[in-house]
Design brief:
The complex is a heterodimer of chains A (364) and B (142). Chain A is an alpha/beta fold and 364 residues long. Chain A has two domains: 220 residues, Quinone Oxidoreductase, Chain A, domain 1 (Alpha-Beta Complex), CATH 3.90.180.10; 129 residues, 3-Layer(aba) Sandwich (Rossmann fold), CATH 3.40.50.720. Chain B has 142 residues and is α+β, with helices and mostly antiparallel strands. Chain B has a single domain, classed as 2-Layer Sandwich (Nonspecific Lipid-transfer Protein, Chain A), CATH 3.30.1050. Chain B has six helices and five strands; from the N terminus they run ααββββααβαα. A five-stranded mixed β-sheet of chain B has the order 3-2-1-4-5. In chain B, helix 1 packs across helix 6. The longest helix of chain B is centred in the N-terminal third of the chain and has 15 residues. Chain B starts with 6 loop residues before the first helix and ends in an 11-residue tail after the last helix. The chains are: A alpha/beta (364), B alpha+beta (142). At the A-B interface, helix 7, helix 8 and helix 9 of A face helix 3 and helix 4 of B. The complex binds zinc ion (2 copies). The site of one zinc ion (ZN) has 8 residues of chain A, from helix 2 and helix 3.
């Protein structure tokens, strides 16, 4: 099978031919039909997100199940599925505590480049190689844990469904699990794949005013079409002053950072009102530290918190997101700005880092 | 767009305002700080200091531009836009510190002695803008 692979940090993304094993007892083989291209994939290519290489890229995919392992009961060949990059085990301390997005075993798998079972099912010239976060969706096929797949309606377009796997769960989930109240004013710093879905989640939650900050004109237009009421181009206007003008110096109720730049996390915190909350969602490099005003925590009762995968648990959340999509509350098609074939994945990454805006999807 | 596009344009407005402040009744408040007060500006990047002079001097402090060559007691760092809004009376210092719009270094309590008098100083900045022909700067976007 073909797959988009990073052979070493800083090396160009290559399409190579790999062998794939049959699924293990609790695993399934998925024929990929669509896979989004996410900034996290690029961070793995550049080494900013240190994951074991060589590695099959991609973690935001949808496809059709072709084979199931001997112990798989819930999933059948022919099922249409979305892949989750956190195959929560359901039994570790974090899963039991109600935080499946922090599942210890899923985290170990991601860090080690394996599946949830601890095994690797993809080989390059006979040698097992890693996959991105227990998935590896930028390939003709992926073997994943049965806990990594959630079925979707057979008439749902795969390209739209694929986005549920990362950007939508992360963005909408972060908004739905934040303290947004109906009528609130919300800030979204970074209106890319995740940020645009925070905008949608905030709108679904009943936010009255939604401010989106992004350098890309495409992303600002998309944000407006998905529910933002004000967009700010930080190359033109000072975002904090513009936000304070818009909120009559009060600041926003809830602010989200969806880029992963420490200065922008500070911007989100600084833009939050007294008693407000800032949520860090973008992923900085593991060795980056943040400087913010310490007096603001007690004297202004501000909260700075984080969100990983939007606090999502795919078996619970994907069906709900599908219902929101069916009812028109959640829009997926407008998010997709470019389509590529798997062989053109390197070009998709080039376009991603050039900041052209909107989501890129590889389609089969 | 930034209010001050260059250090020169900031000096022409805020610098001349500070020069003028040396001649008003409140100028003697500078002695309550007890040392040099420096404003570090970003966007545009420049520095202006208030340097207290001996009590028998004609004016209580002098204005210096650029890198300091003498010891500085207290600094306030901010963007040109924030500084302009501050002197218009549109910035709450406590809020601005919490939002990192203003970064203060040194004994902040010394500067706090000026705070109760700011309400009498803000109108002087507005008068100054009119006097130098920059009444276009009186309104900030809302
Ligand atoms: Zn992602
Ligand atoms: Zn677990």
């Amino acid at each position: 099978m073909r797959a988009a692979v990073v052979s070493d940090y800083g090396e160009p993304v290559r399409i190579v031919s790999l062998e794939i094993d049959d699924p293990g007892p609790n695993e399934v083989l998925v024929e990929m039909r669509a896979s989004g291209v996410c900034h996290s994939d690029w961070h793995a290519v550049s080494g900013r997100l240190p994951l074991p290489v060589p590695m099959v890229l991609g973690h935001e995919g949808a496809g059709v199940v072709r084979k199931v392992g001997s112990r798989v009961r819930q999933i059948q060949p022919g099922d249409c599925v979305v892949l989750s990059w956190i195959p929560s085990c359901g039994s570790c301390w974090w899963c039991t505590d109600g935080h499946p997005e922090l599942c210890e075993r899923a985290n170990d798998a991601a860090v080690n480049g394996t599946l949830a079972s601890g095994d690797k099912r993809v080989r390059w010239d006979g040698t097992p190689i890693s996959v991105f976060s227990a998935t590896g969706t930028l390939a003709d096929f992926a073997v994943v844990s049965e806990r990594s797949v959630v079925t979707i309606p057979s008439d749902m377009p795969f390209e739209e469904a694929s986005l549920l796997g990362c950007a939508v769960q992360t963005g909408v989930g972060a908004a739905l699990r934040s303290p947004i109240r109906p009528g609130d004013t919300i800030l979204v710093v970074g209106a890319g794949g995740v940020g645009l879905n925070i905008v949608q989640g905030a709108r679904i939650r009943g936010a009255a005013k939604i401010i989106a900050v992004d350098l890309s004109a495409t992303n600002r237009e998309l944000a407006l079409s998905l529910g933002a009421t004000l967009t700010i181009n930080p190359a033109k206007d000072d975002p904090l002053l513009a936000i304070l003008d818009y909120t009559h110096d009060r600041g926003v109720d809830v602010a989200f950072e969806a880029v992963g730049q420490v200065e922008l996390v500070a911007l989100a915190f600084n833009a939050a009102r007294r008693g407000g909350t800032a949520v860090a969602i973008g992923v900085p490099a593991p060795n980056e530290n943040l400087s913010i005003n310490a007096f603001a925590f007690p004297s202004q009762e501000k909260t700075l918190t984080g969100s990983w995968y939007g606090g999502s648990f795919a078996p619970r959340d994907i069906p709900r997101l599908v219902e929101l999509w069916k009812s028109g509350h959640l829009r997926l098609a407008p998010l997709i700005k470019r389509r590529y074939r798997l062989d053109d994945t390197p070009k998709a990454f080039e376009d991603l880092i050039s900041g052209r805006g909107g989501r890129s999807v590889i389609a089969w | 767009m930034a209010i001050f596009e260059s250090p020169e344009s900031l000096h022409a407005v805020l610098g001349t305002f500070f020069e003028r402040l040396r001649q008003v009744d409140q100028a003697y408040l500078v002695y309550q700080i007890g040392g040099t007060l420096e404003f570090i500006f970003n966007k545009p990047s420049t520095r202006i200091r208030w340097i207290p002079q001996p009590p028998d001097s004609a004016l209580p402090f002098r204005i210096a531009y650029g890198e300091p060559t003498e010891p500085v007691l207290l600094t306030f760092e901010q963007d040109g836009d924030t500084a302009h809004r501050f002197w218009l009376g549109r910035v709450n210092l406590q809020q601005a510190l919490a939002r990192q719009q203003v970064i203060a270094r040194g004994p902040l309590s010394r500067a706090m002695k000026l705070i109760p008098h700011l309400d009498t100083i803000y109108p002087l900045y507005q008068e100054h803008l009119v006097a130098i022909g920059r009444s276009d700067l009186l309104e900030v976007r809302r």
